[in-house]
Design a protein that fits this description.
Elements lengths: L6 E4 L6 E6 L4 E7 L2 H18 L5 E7 L4 H15 L5
Parallel strand pairs: 3-4
Antiparallel strand pairs: 1-2, 2-4
Helix pairs in contact: 1-2
Length: about 90
Amino acid sequence: MKIARRAQAGTMQSSDIMVFAEPGDELIIEIDSTVAKQYEHLIRAKITEVIERMNVTSGIFRIKDRGALDYAIAARVEAVISRAKEQEA
């Protein structure tokens, strides 16, 4: 599945994450996090896990993290993919 249109999910509140998705020719994940030095690898792993589970093959994901926990990361990525995916016929 490809990302078909721009979408966003989440907030910029503390302990939350804002996820932006838009169409792209390849899969790109950009992360801006207040806890990047300690946890960027774990944030990226959770995002990648959800993207793979939802069979997304291309799109650009821009992440603005403010210390979100795994369940919030997964929920926001799932929501943005649902909003941005191609419409089913």
